[in-house]
Protein 1
Amino acid sequence: MLNQVKLVKKASLSLAYTKTADKNNLLALIAKNLAKNKQKIIKANLIDQAKAKHLLNSGELTKPLLERLILNDEKIAQLSNYCEAVANLADPAAKVLSKTMLDDGLVLTKITEPFGVIASIFESRPEVVVQVASLALKSGNGVILKGGSEAKHTNQCLSQIIKESLANYNLADALVLIETRGQVSEILAMEEHIDLIIPRGSNQFVKYIQDNTRIPVMGHSGGVCHVYVAANANLAEALNIVIDSKTDYPSACNAVETLLLDEKIAKDFLAKFLLSPKIRNIKLFADRSASEMITAKGVVVKIIENDWEKEYNDLAISIKLVKGIDEAITHINKHGSKHTDSILTENSKEALKFLNQVDSASVVHNASTRFADGFVFGLGAEVGISTGKYHARGPVGLEGLVTTKWRLVGKGHIKGDYGAAPKKSFKHQNLLT
Amino acid sequence: MLNQVKLVKKASLSLAYTKTADKNNLLALIAKNLAKNKQKIIKANLIDQAKAKHLLNSGELTKPLLERLILNDEKIAQLSNYCEAVANLADPAAKVLSKTMLDDGLVLTKITEPFGVIASIFESRPEVVVQVASLALKSGNGVILKGGSEAKHTNQCLSQIIKESLANYNLADALVLIETRGQVSEILAMEEHIDLIIPRGSNQFVKYIQDNTRIPVMGHSGGVCHVYVAANANLAEALNIVIDSKTDYPSACNAVETLLLDEKIAKDFLAKFLLSPKIRNIKLFADRSASEMITAKGVVVKIIENDWEKEYNDLAISIKLVKGIDEAITHINKHGSKHTDSILTENSKEALKFLNQVDSASVVHNASTRFADGFVFGLGAEVGISTGKYHARGPVGLEGLVTTKWRLVGKGHIKGDYGAAPKKSFKHQNLLT
């Protein structure tokens, strides 16, 4: 496999400075070839589906996994559209960030450059092959894909279509599909040849990747998001936002998991909340004080003693009373996953304190946590959401897939000529604008 | 120690959004207090010096280490000037990078924000206390310092002066000095409380840090820089640049270690090179072909068989013949440390290929590798040089000490209202011009 990866690295050096127009034409060609080979893709997918149904019957696979596996006409058309949409996004590479004349004839440029080789390790959904490949190729990166074995035939078929399109540009080596599970640990150890890993899958899966490689990993392993309803919240608005944050898409990483209620409004808020028909299917967990208020309204609740880091990914929520904003901020910074947290208040000074001091990638005031998303944020496409602070943070688009490089061009300049007078000194003249 | 670190984290939350003017006044106060307490600093330093001299006599300490330890009047004045210079640099924090109206009343801002807590682990030079603290504080970060035991009294004295200055702003907790060696491994394990580690010291030291923590480490463990003299180089210029790259400051990380000579000009270049009086003290190591040419001129050389990753940090250089630019690029990408590499040629097409395909933080054309430096590059001050691609790359200034945060402010907006018609769609209007 090392040889395959080395070939990807080599191809990535050519791809890195391929013209934007060529990269866009390549993506258009992939879109066209996906449409053209629709029957072939569906045929491959049916083989995977048949195998998965067997595993479902024997209990070795869950129904959601089977559902995520399916590629039909509509989904294939969406993938073609996706490639075309990525072609239309601005090219993040080869952007000149600064240009400085250090001295006559000595010019320094800071330029964006692709990482090199990106490895994407993901579970069942075969769409990821096309989604990640199109983002990686648009940003000029070579790409290594490792999908789940349950989607083996579909992944092979999709990769082959992309590789054939790449071959038109003499870049067939820029993508490789890795197939056996043992190869994951090999990938994780290839820090000399792989520049970035993007895992997609369950929290445990991402955590495993993070814990077992020295290659930078872009992503998040947890989504314990909070909504804090402050003493000065507009309670009608708050009710609306809390319910949306929980129910709009409960299994999303930006769904709220813990509701912090200022003790001054807890009773009033809960009275409205517990009456809402929309919360009927939500399982409630709460601290003792909140539990008493909830039980008093005849609603079932389970008491939480200490476990404030639960990510339900489901119609369930933890509720805790807090004395005020300081306790809310401390709780979130201690128990949250640095993903997305929201404050609901009409007090702008408190809102600013929350936005400043909550140490999370996305902080929200008077709106739902569910907005934290690359498409919503206007990034065009999303590689994932990063809860790390190093490099990209929060929803990550194409710009997260490039690094920078310094280029210095001189005319025989040597350092020994510069220093205190009578030596020369630097001019540092900005050549941009 | 955990409690001390937690206090730094807490103080960093206040520091993060301290006004630029206050941070600048703080730095001016530190500069003033350093000057005012000069005698105290020198007294503390003399204690460390006395102890170090004992260790020198017993062979437990080297002379360069003792020299690096010394703080005199001039160096203390330089430290005060340094703080004032950092005060004059632009504030990298709280910069609005983008501002987008997602929909009426729903505004998203991407803003720069300090990392939080930076830990600096360094060896003997006590200046690092002031240098790192001023950069960390200016960028709004709390800072943990761990210096070498040989500078214990000096480090304590300098830290105390900074802490007293911080106390004027109720921020005394924002800096802590850690003193015992065992605490390093504790620091490396505190990934929940420390956001970034900046090690300074030998390559082995930095490598040890990188290998033993999951906290992001900013720096470099190697500086195997190359100069490639291509077939079309201006040989007089090349001679000048090669000698500067090696001799201007041989122990610097951006000094050249390996000289790659195109076989078409190798003989001519070596003839000039070996005649230069400036190379008399340089020890030569070379492959067989180059060694033959060197020996033919009556100059002593040692043959290198395979070890092309030697970092001499001294007046010594490896020399290798290559068939052309492709072999040069392949050699550098395989054996270099992704720090700084230079091509000398009058062929602009080859130069561009080199600048594009050499996978290093700084790439240079027709100039010395020695220019790769934060001050030279116009960054004002340098935290270090990063050979990683994730986050900052190459010389890193204040901008490398900040991350970004997304802030979303709404008026009760919920995600469930947005989607395909008849639902609302996003407007994504850029509010920055």
Protein 2
Amino acid sequence: MKPSPITATIDFEKDGVQHGFLKLPHSHDGSAWGSIMIPVACIKQGVGPTALLTGGNHGDEYEGPLAILDLASRLKAEEVSGRVILVPGMNYPAVKAGTRTSPIDRGNLNRSFPGRPDGSVTEKIADYFQRVLLPLADLVCDVHSGGKTLDFVPFAAAHILPDKAQQARCVAAMEAFAAPYSMMLLEIDAVGMYDTAAEEMGKTFVSTELGGGGTARAATVAIARRGLKNLLVHAGILEGEVEAAQSVKLDMPDGSCYITSEVTGLLEMALDLGEVVRKGEVVARIRSFERTGAAPVELRAECDGILAGRHFPGLISAGDTVAVIGVPV
Amino acid sequence: MKPSPITATIDFEKDGVQHGFLKLPHSHDGSAWGSIMIPVACIKQGVGPTALLTGGNHGDEYEGPLAILDLASRLKAEEVSGRVILVPGMNYPAVKAGTRTSPIDRGNLNRSFPGRPDGSVTEKIADYFQRVLLPLADLVCDVHSGGKTLDFVPFAAAHILPDKAQQARCVAAMEAFAAPYSMMLLEIDAVGMYDTAAEEMGKTFVSTELGGGGTARAATVAIARRGLKNLLVHAGILEGEVEAAQSVKLDMPDGSCYITSEVTGLLEMALDLGEVVRKGEVVARIRSFERTGAAPVELRAECDGILAGRHFPGLISAGDTVAVIGVPV
Amino acid sequence: MKPSPITATIDFEKDGVQHGFLKLPHSHDGSAWGSIMIPVACIKQGVGPTALLTGGNHGDEYEGPLAILDLASRLKAEEVSGRVILVPGMNYPAVKAGTRTSPIDRGNLNRSFPGRPDGSVTEKIADYFQRVLLPLADLVCDVHSGGKTLDFVPFAAAHILPDKAQQARCVAAMEAFAAPYSMMLLEIDAVGMYDTAAEEMGKTFVSTELGGGGTARAATVAIARRGLKNLLVHAGILEGEVEAAQSVKLDMPDGSCYITSEVTGLLEMALDLGEVVRKGEVVARIRSFERTGAAPVELRAECDGILAGRHFPGLISAGDTVAVIGVPV
Amino acid sequence: MKPSPITATIDFEKDGVQHGFLKLPHSHDGSAWGSIMIPVACIKQGVGPTALLTGGNHGDEYEGPLAILDLASRLKAEEVSGRVILVPGMNYPAVKAGTRTSPIDRGNLNRSFPGRPDGSVTEKIADYFQRVLLPLADLVCDVHSGGKTLDFVPFAAAHILPDKAQQARCVAAMEAFAAPYSMMLLEIDAVGMYDTAAEEMGKTFVSTELGGGGTARAATVAIARRGLKNLLVHAGILEGEVEAAQSVKLDMPDGSCYITSEVTGLLEMALDLGEVVRKGEVVARIRSFERTGAAPVELRAECDGILAGRHFPGLISAGDTVAVIGVPV
Amino acid sequence: MKPSPITATIDFEKDGVQHGFLKLPHSHDGSAWGSIMIPVACIKQGVGPTALLTGGNHGDEYEGPLAILDLASRLKAEEVSGRVILVPGMNYPAVKAGTRTSPIDRGNLNRSFPGRPDGSVTEKIADYFQRVLLPLADLVCDVHSGGKTLDFVPFAAAHILPDKAQQARCVAAMEAFAAPYSMMLLEIDAVGMYDTAAEEMGKTFVSTELGGGGTARAATVAIARRGLKNLLVHAGILEGEVEAAQSVKLDMPDGSCYITSEVTGLLEMALDLGEVVRKGEVVARIRSFERTGAAPVELRAECDGILAGRHFPGLISAGDTVAVIGVPV
Amino acid sequence: MKPSPITATIDFEKDGVQHGFLKLPHSHDGSAWGSIMIPVACIKQGVGPTALLTGGNHGDEYEGPLAILDLASRLKAEEVSGRVILVPGMNYPAVKAGTRTSPIDRGNLNRSFPGRPDGSVTEKIADYFQRVLLPLADLVCDVHSGGKTLDFVPFAAAHILPDKAQQARCVAAMEAFAAPYSMMLLEIDAVGMYDTAAEEMGKTFVSTELGGGGTARAATVAIARRGLKNLLVHAGILEGEVEAAQSVKLDMPDGSCYITSEVTGLLEMALDLGEVVRKGEVVARIRSFERTGAAPVELRAECDGILAGRHFPGLISAGDTVAVIGVPV
């Protein structure tokens, strides 16, 4: 396989604080000899584990980029035992545009792994993480939120894995993150995900959903900051104690807990995130805005639980996921 | 002045429940003999005051359309003494597109009054409200939210008016609405607003901001539903009692309480809506996403109060209003 | 009023055959010192009446441009007594784009009269016809078809005018055109039309609708060619006899003969152009393509007559005119 | 090979009438957890052959969707011996947009077979037909028309196949369809076609071209309705007699019967669909709209026959097929 | 007339160096409470004349913005006797986009004077210069280049004015600018120009064309820097001597010296900027790229002179100005 | 592998002058049965070598298309010993649009070799050159310029090749071209280039960069014309002498001679093309246009040489190549 076209302007083996770029050549109508410059920082001292902290896997999710940029500008090399690599905007073209997918190739980075060195721009980014950055890491945390079209109660997540020792490491890291909710996920279709790429290399991997709507709140950014610092302490890269916090454990089982709309219209939720719902209750109504006087379509819960996630925009289309019920354990 | 090109498919003078359209001829490349069909309902019985209830003045604000569609499909003629005219999507092309302004002419309806019968599509809509619907009304309530780019604590509002008797009527109606917050507004630039058009005709007028972000929550829709019903009771159109609720009174003075960004980047709020802030405290930080390691630009409050409004998207541009401080009275 | 910015590269007072342009300066991002070059021909000999023949008033109607281009390349000065001015593509930016309205300013030329010399590009074109070309003409014929979104039985038309002598001249010219159908029109909203501009100057004016769908058939182009030649003979500009043909006289009364859809979906006509329909019969069905199993919305005729016009595309939106019933007289 | 990501909301093995969707997950900027909902109906009773009836393979062809939606809403399970599966809009994103190809990936579904479960949206649809729906069928009919840019005399078609017994089955089905014209096709480039996919599985396959221009006429929809019903009778799924009609047999040989334009301009046909043409006669003229006075480019027939197909729009570009001559047999 | 909605964040009456913004409120779909922030600097000391130096009147012309930004960051208050106001990007939305006209309203700022406070964004900018900035100035210099679609020999220009004393002041300032060429202009259509607005107020006004093509060369930026400094010395705002340089005097008479293309194709210049041409010589050839073997259209000079300006892009459209011949005096 | 879908309308084996097209079927929403018509000429007499001369590999580079169109319309069969195949616009969709890459698939033709017969439009063009045209040729010259976003001193180029005999042939041809500069290139990433495709077949290959900016000057077109004629003389296809001219030999070593910007802003070059620069000197400054008063970012040379290439547009983005230093040998 060909080498990655991406080159880093910093040296991941060097001690100290470095701020630089992952430089990805990109020839296009606006610049024949242009590049995409993905910001990266590396803070390293001596020997120790490596944490790879990422945000902007989707370009419209903001808690990750904000907390990682904050950490990158504060962390001192002398505080660190080992190495912290920070990439606040993985799919940088999407981050610049504020969109889930890349405006260049409409690539969803989190479905593009393992990527290709001679593929699309998004595939080249995936390939670089797959073959260069992930192999450097022991602990990987990818901070997601719901983006412009989904909203979630804030949770950290670990996956059910075939290697139970690895799973235990991941669960311990998820608990160290100390988000208000903690979710055990059994992905139905894990193909192409960054999560899967990291886990298949045996890494300790934590993901999150810390809110959504294409915004960030002070409260959710604070969760991200605390979580990332906790992870570094947990991994032994930073000294000190994990800052504990209460966390509700949730399952997000498939099928019956996902509610899909078969109609298009205005979305009227009958309850808000975190509220309790019983099987058979109305979760949402879809109203036609094309005429008055029509009865709304009612969507009902098919299981007991709390409202863990929802479609965010006021307009909803047939086929959109309206709501996700999380089941407290 | 020429007559409006808009015709209603219902008769506002007829008793009973009618659902129909305001039909606005619109010849365009996609349909030479097409029309814009703005949904409208009229529920009337006997003699009594007329309430004109509107949403979708901006097309990305959802509490108004949802509560008005709900009311339009529930209200029975025999419950009404007088008349209720309901237009859930005033700037209907914008509502269909889920955008603040019209995708046809980029018109901001709330800056287009009094409109023109031979102007742009948005101006034609304004003209129809100005010359046909507003004259029919005694009480006018236009339900706004922040839309995709602003978010507010939920409030009803009245304006400071030269006619103090009229102002008192408006304040009484605002109080009847019973939103969690109540705001007295002195508009700096009221030119072109629907509010001004209604107030200059001597109407009792209530406006709101019930949330934002281009979504609606169950809680904010409930505020809108209660508020509209309360208004109809307050006006004597419906029987019964106003459903009272606690409401914090706020002023939103100009100048020092509006915070503008002079830079572009990622927005990190330092506090959330409804939280208390003191003059001199950091309200928000703007972070460059173009490189790591740079210090954020800090924006500080220039007055004491609570965070009443904010820029919603994670990306912010130079010139955007970051935050509005409301001053409790 | 300022002079028109348009200059002709030919001299309308000169005898002979001239092919040239109406040159309209247009500074835009693609050419700071560019112009729009509207093709024009003038064929003149001696003293006699002037005919102004135009097509492309809407840019997606083809019988007019084809017949006029044909005539412009065939007509010899020695055949002519007087003058023929031919503009095959009035709204030339729209003609180039194949769209009803101008891609530059979305202007509908036939609603832009009398235009303005310092207005939009479309208004500048209208102004040039209003102040330069129309005053040169005795007989004006503007060849329309239905364009991409309408289809008609082929007809020539004259308007009911306050000056009955002028009306008689127009009717005589319409009859000379000898289209398969002849329509007397009472325009509801004649403001801004080229027709009105010509008629208010006392010109003999004939309009047509010769088909539609954004195409031209051999048969409809033949109607246009014959009609234009007949007009020139009728006016005494060409020698010879008017080539007569059978023509069904129609009225297109308002209101009940226009059928509008209040829903969006797939359009299924129940009869085709020229077929007879009785009041109460189904003219069209609108079917949802979003699901199977739903009953279509049926639209019924509200008067007796023939199907004279229809919405052409397979998709139809709420507010579109579905069909027009013409009433034979 | 991976399983299809598409799931049906109905059960093809269940007796009765079912209306539902083929649900295709589609994560995009407008909905992170969205789906494309392709309408499908299944009408089944007892044991018997399966007919798979499809429209909307190209999204701007309307006779198929209209006739199939009509059949889906009328057909009763008790009338059926066997099973009828109806998909009125195969390339549903294209159908919604009214375009030949998918607005999502510009995919031409009829060149995307056999598709891929992890490919583009269009390839996923092709894969589902290839691996799920086609194997269920005995008789397959895909109803095409010319779409927005082509127009045809209405015909049903069968292919010349290596398996002459299969070809005879297909010809018999084509004849049962009873369109005004019947065409034997030898596809030059059959790669990627749905036709080829069905035929290679040994299915009895009928295709059609029933008009075009992006519209549907009452007459052509009637041909489609009759044809589909005839097919079901012919297959023994419905009782009764095939409704016979006269059908002209045509060949559409390659090369000399296709006429291509090497210039860009306005298209003026010299004859209309169904008319007779002799070798050497002018079939069409292309006129420059950029200037008057130029001679048109003439295109002449290179074989005898009738005009079976044509370019529909008034504008034509270099490289476009202008006309197809069909040779009666 | 209403006050301008634009407010300056700096005080033009204050001594010292100030860097700030002209803040223009702009509510749009991307930010309901947004503003356009036009950079401005003011460098003032004591009493003396005011120079207003501007660039970016068209957004794709770069010598002006570069020289003015350089001057704004170097000039010290103590060097100045009087005041220098610097606006490097007048039509700031166009400057950000790198386009001649505004991407918001497609406004050409230099055809929008005197503007309107309640007009489009571009008209609001014009109005602010008309009513606020121009009245503050004694000397006005607006630095233009050819932009992306024109290229010029570098020249400064003055207009022929009715007030010969004012004209003499302007010519003296033009000569002080000391560009390689100096041009006396008689504008045909001066309506709407910033030049005209300044001149009608009696200001000393200098304009330039310093190159083009949407780029800037080191040599042309050096001309702009020297010219601006010379102007400030000439006006007595800076001390020292005007840095003289040789300048060829040119006339750019109308009509015969402008060469327009009537065809579309590839532009092949027969001579380059500054070269001598004789009447009747070929200046350019336009070649069709649609086919090989066709003869190019040749365009010939209609007067003697040098090539002073040309169409820059390789593609040229009918109606574009190909070349301008300057006549040395 | 499947045959190419492209067919030539001319016969490359026939003597004489032929002008025609490479016809590439392209079914799209605007024409279901359309084609891309790539102009091609073949001038052949008797036996002798074949030269393949191409331009428009990138669609915004003009010296090649102009010189090749000129040659194609002048060259007579009787002047030729052997064969000259001329394709002035290889990536024809890009040439029509005036863009580097294809507007259909955004393909960069010069990174698409060897192409695929069933790939995207750009890949189909590459495949046709790979498998049909290149095998016919002995000598291949592909004329490039910098396009809209780069500008170069005019040079011809040869590559360092493993086969030194072939390299010597290429160098001899480059020298025969006689451009003002001659460059020996060691491509870092030659994968996908037309150059590599030709060289791997053992062809004598010459490339050029003759200017840039999306325009052509009379002087650079003259270089291209002379160079192509010289090549044909050099190859023995035309009689006569190579027209010699002085040529500066340059190396363009990697790494230190390429200067990249890490910031976005306005580009101010400190020197112009062809000027001498010393290591450590400022080559360019990038200025923020978002505010006045900020110091520019300075970019310095890291080697001695001349400025051989530069970013052309006035706006520059982080990641763009600012300048290339050529080292005279």
Protein 3
Amino acid sequence: MSASNMSVSPKKVIGVIGGMGPHAGVDLVDKIIEQTNASSDHDHLPVALLSYPERIVDRSTFLFDETDTNPAYALADILRALDAAGAVVAGMPCNTAHAPAIFDTLVDEVRGTGHDVRLLHMIEETVQFMQATMPHIDTVGTLSTQAVYDLQLHRAPLEAAGFNVVTPDPPMRERVNTTIFDTTFGLKAQSHPATPQAKQNLLDAIAHLISKGADAVVLGCTELPLAPLAADMDMVPLIDPAEILARALIKSVHPDHLKPVAPRLAAFQTT
Amino acid sequence: MSASNMSVSPKKVIGVIGGMGPHAGVDLVDKIIEQTNASSDHDHLPVALLSYPERIVDRSTFLFDETDTNPAYALADILRALDAAGAVVAGMPCNTAHAPAIFDTLVDEVRGTGHDVRLLHMIEETVQFMQATMPHIDTVGTLSTQAVYDLQLHRAPLEAAGFNVVTPDPPMRERVNTTIFDTTFGLKAQSHPATPQAKQNLLDAIAHLISKGADAVVLGCTELPLAPLAADMDMVPLIDPAEILARALIKSVHPDHLKPVAPRLAAFQTT
């Protein structure tokens, strides 16, 4: 479709629920821009981002019974606001928020109030992408918070799709969790750029997963930095669910604007 | 104010009009996050970003009479949508859009339709910041597109505030303009990261402005990359209007959450 045709009917708006943590929403918008095939400013897709950190109760706090306030209701308010701003599809860059107790409640709540914006499921999109593009991968390692390990948010759908799944041994799990949450060197405290200690811990954890047989590693927390890790790790593909979500969002509204799969991942298709 | 007090009344929402070009809005949200004094996810301020590139006619095309479609009306629609999403104050990271023919029309249009979201003026905020924090600066150099030079969007308010202003000689102006717009090596085509050629051109232009007496340089186009230039240039302060706008937006709604001025600029206060 030519640029002049594109301008006849306005492009459909992609919505982003941000705020879990402050950078995750912005990073997803960046990834949407990066994955869009555009030759001018005007070719880029319209995106609405609502990043309201304080309104969203910590997901793990709810899931582990420390509060009965389900963040799904605040997330539903934000999704309705995105719908009101014109979004026809939306994504939520937070792995923990995809726990069924939150995600399913959110979808039911929004559907029940008459809004038809479609919320993609980041983890399901990731597993589908891996099935479609990585037929030679047998065993997948996952890096995530302790909460996401406990909830098996990646293990369950990956196994259902036929992958073997390996996770770090308990001491390394603890180290990964600390690397995300530690208030001095952790990724939530300092992620742009990550501290050398955080980066080294993650590289060690990836090496540990490879030693347990991983042919690919899912960076299953939106705080895990793709770029600096990818530059150092060329042994196995690193899968960034937020990047896959960005691609799925573009594909759902403007497939003609989706860039080819990056060489980093595409190269792996042929091995 | 303690964190618990903050959660009693919800924080006020900052709006961002993005899309001029695709990265500028995201970069402003990043700068708001960076300039916010926060010790947890929940301390960060709520931000709404609407980035609709194709709806906004190129500002220079309008200002130089190549079309009579004033982008102010599309910008007003976006600002009203930010108001509807709860924004009480907003910013627009595009220098050219602050030309009076656009900015004043936009403000009148939104005020005339009963919306009271307040749009800060990025260039005025920048000049006020420099007046307040840089009393020892006499001469300011500016880097911008040819359109912004022709419109004197930085020169006029800087001179009104008592600064001398220097701009590049015509061949260097042309080189700066090309560095922004060139479709192969230019910043609009490739800004994350900038190409070596683009970066070298900008460093040359800054050296040229210093040779013409500049004690500070305003990076007067939101495509000009602060971080890589700042790392190489420690001779004069580089002023990023989008960073000043981020600070002004925070200050206008939650001054208690504004970080101190960065050492890069604060150090200059005492010379």
